[in-house]
Amino acid sequence: MTEPFSRIGRAMSAALFILLLSGAADAGDLSSAISPTARSVSITPGGTATATVYATVINRTDSALGNCTVDMPRGSPLAVGWVWTNAADNSAVPGSENTPFSLDPRGSRALALAFTANAEFDGIASPVFECSGGATADVLYGVNTLALTVSETAPADILAIGIALPNNDGVIRIANEGGRQAMAVAAINIGAADTVTVRPVGVYGLNDRLPATLTICESGSDGRCLSSPVSELSVSFAQSQVRTFSVFAQADNGIGITLAPANTRVEVRFLVGNRLAAAAGAAITAPGPSFQTDQRDALRLAQQATFGPTSGTIEEIRRRGIEGWIDHQLTLTDSSYADLAGQIVNTSYCSGIPYPCSRDHFSAFPLQMRFFENAVHQPDQLRQRVAFALSQILVVSEYEVNMNYALATYNQMLLDNAFGNYRDILEGVARSPVMGDYLDTVNSRAEAPAENFPRELLQLFGLGETLLNPDGTPVLDNQGRGMPAYSEQDVLEVARALTGWVYPTRPGELPSPRSPRYYDRDMSPYPAEHDNGPKIVLGVGLPAGQGADADLESVIAAVYQHPNVAPFVSRQLIQHLVMSNPPPDYVARISAVFENNGAGVRGDLRAVVRAILLDPAARTISTNYETGGKLRDPVLLTTSVMRLVGARTDGYAFLRRISALGQVPFESPSVFNFYPPDFALPGSEGLQSPSQALMNLSTVYERHNLLYDWTYNGYNGRWDWNPLGDFPGSTGTQIDWTPWGRLAQTPERLIDTLDAIALEEDLTPVQRAAILESLRHRTNNDPLIQAELQARQAIYLIVTSPQFQIDH
Hints:
- With 808 residues, the chain is α+β, with helices and mostly antiparallel strands.
- It is 33% helix and 19% strand.
- The chain is built from 26 helices and 28 strands.
- Strands 13-20-19-15-17 form a 5-stranded mixed beta sheet, with no helix packed on it. A 4-stranded antiparallel beta sheet has the order 1-3-7-5, covered by helices on one side. It has a 4-stranded antiparallel beta sheet with strand order 6-4-9-10, with no helix packed on it.
């Protein structure tokens, strides 16, 4: 051990011991920690370089352990040696260099480690602490690993030589919800002079950010800040200079921080350029409000009301409570297609302009990318889920209307009305030139009224084919047969009433049957082509001569007031959000809310959606696995996986893969959506599974392949995650597997976490044991890489399980 720095040894050794005792690793027979966790040393060509750190090893068992050693993983370009040190003064124990040591039950050993390199190196050193009988310490990044730089250019070599906390227990303990606590860090540069960035960073499990604001200042000998705290500092560090810093952690209101030292920490990082030169840290904990909801119900609500649960969403639901979270979601309006709807072009816009003009303006592609980007990232999850459900009930498709701004305009209308009134939606759909183009209302003439939209208004958008009871069951005649909800004459009468509409006109133009396709506003009436005769729609008389606009209003009123609308629409919304086979009493309760929101208003979707999610049928764990829950359709399956793993995406990855699964948003093959709401579950007696209609040998194979590629084989830079070079603003898809790797360093904790945030704790002991056994066979010479690979494998096994693919 040739590199002494005894002046820092005692403080480091004490800090390490506190860190281990605070639970930095709570699995395995050994725990270990080293400090500092970053070093930078110089090397001469053809020579060697040595970086020294201190370490503490603890026996977590009640039995003595012998023949304990420290080594580097096979294939590492580094070598490591060790010497025992005295706990009192950190001095080396004579004759102990590279000598195996023993550990008493629950005992510890202090060491100094020397990492040796014979060439330049820039990476993570992960020493292996092992005793007889196979007892080892799990590798925990930033706890018992060393970020090491060996360079021929003399670098700054910053050492954090002390951490001071009020309780002297290695933990930043914030006393009150939303409170503040400080820690002090001292550092010395034992290398070359350089400019160093000092930055506090929060490490917070699988979430994007620690729920606390971190600031830092340089402090004087009295501990007071020399200037106002900021997010990071840039300081000139002279050789042998000592500097002290104060770090302030201000907890977010309403969010507790659970003590988990290996995964929830505040680190002070010293960087020279982009190179980590040193790091020091402490665990952090803060109280929060009591959880109002248990984990399983929070996960179940996240499955029903978002595009996939995340640990952050589950925690928010638990914190706000079920009703509080839903009510908060009902206020959010983050997602928008308005900018896409504003990119208005005429039908010849791309003439003479090369690709990708046609893709960007005459396909749903930009809208689809935005849809997936919003689904993964935007907070208004419930609004988006309801709008997506409405888009699958009131269908338009790129197959008939291919102009992107038109599709964006239509779907913005659904977003805007997701929590509005269903009557307004029906009228908006009836007046929409996008729907008018899709189902032929545009230019429908009195001489030949188009029946396409009138039929679907009755059959798909409003009533359904069969007369319904309020609980959604069919009304039967004396022979036990279902009774029709409307007649062919009703279709013809609606068709007559909806004649005389043309594309809206651009400013300065007059309505005309020869007007070009234009979708920026509602269709325009063209009186010369309207049938002004009397009509009878669903038993409601429409007087002669009232004009196209009044006839349309009358048709919508007649359809909307029909008693079928409440159970017909309510049941489909339940199917999209909660379960494929809602019991009749569930449908009846929601239909009653549709009929009257409690304030005498009919069709209030805000009240309907709220009632769907708060109903006992939605909030109670189903004990009948045959009828409870629903199969995740391809959109929900893929977004759920991306949200689970914490992906950042522009949406392009979905469009490269999802067509093989049979469901590309806004590209329904027909007005009947990708699947009918009453699709019979094969092999069952009377059960329905709408999304099962997309399952065949080919799509099952493709589902499995996609999940394999996005988890087990999910390396950044893979072909379907790359950005699209000719699409402005495309960023592709990236996943930071580091938090998952950190979690996988304790495999049992990884499986517990996945079970809790993905499966409603449904794993059986046999399944859990099988997953853990499989992880033992996913190995790599680098323990950190191995942990990330094991995490990806575990996630792959979880997301391909029936428990994940079916929302309970």
